[in-house]
Design a protein that fits this description.
Number of helices: 8
Number of strands: 0
Strand content: under 5%
Distance between the termini: 66 Å
Radius of gyration: 21 Å
Number of domains: 1
Helix content: 55-70%
Order of helices and strands: HHHHHHHH
Shape: globular
Structural class: mainly alpha
Length: 150
């Protein structure tokens, strides 16, 4: 079984142990309002960082499918959502990809119980919801970029 004979395995890491506090913080971030605050804070920091990086050095089109074929994928605009939110333009963020923004909001509020309700759905129902969202997102991207006349 490996290990040293007679060595005790600690049940809980002491507060001063590396990872002890971090482990407890990560455990607490999985549920409740504290989890929402931690997730939203992490997303806000990421949005500000991406907005700053984009302002300093615009990398151009990041989507490989769009760069190669000129046709956007359903997730195109996801990075733009973060760039626009980090730059203080929430309306532009919504217009870039409302489905990606809805997914980010869903991930942010999952600790309040939304995640449990999602996983309580039958797998087939979840697949239909995700498939419908991806089709709607692709149609939105095609219309947004002028490839689909509406």
């Amino acid at each position: 079984m490996g290990g040293v004979a007679g060595a005790a395995v600690p049940v809980d890491a002491p507060r001063s142990a590396p990872g002890g506090r971090l482990g407890r913080l990560l455990d607490s971030s999985r549920r409740g309002p504290k989890g929402v605050v931690l997730r939203v804070t992490a997303m806000a920091v990421a949005a500000l960082a991406v907005g700053w990086i984009h302002r300093v050095n615009d990398p151009g089109v990041l989507c490989p499918m769009r760069a190669i074929t000129g046709i956007p994928c359903p997730l195109c605009g996801g990075t733009t959502v973060f760039i626009e939110m980090g730059s203080g333009h929430p309306v532009r963020a919504v217009l870039a990809n409302p489905v990606a923004l809805a997914g980010v909001v869903g991930i942010a509020v999952a600790p309040l119980g939304a995640g449990g309700r999602w996983w309580a759905l039958r797998p087939r129902t979840r697949a239909w919801i995700l498939g419908g969202a991806l089709v709607a997102s692709e149609l939105w991207q095609l219309a947004r970029l002028g490839l689909l006349r509406v």
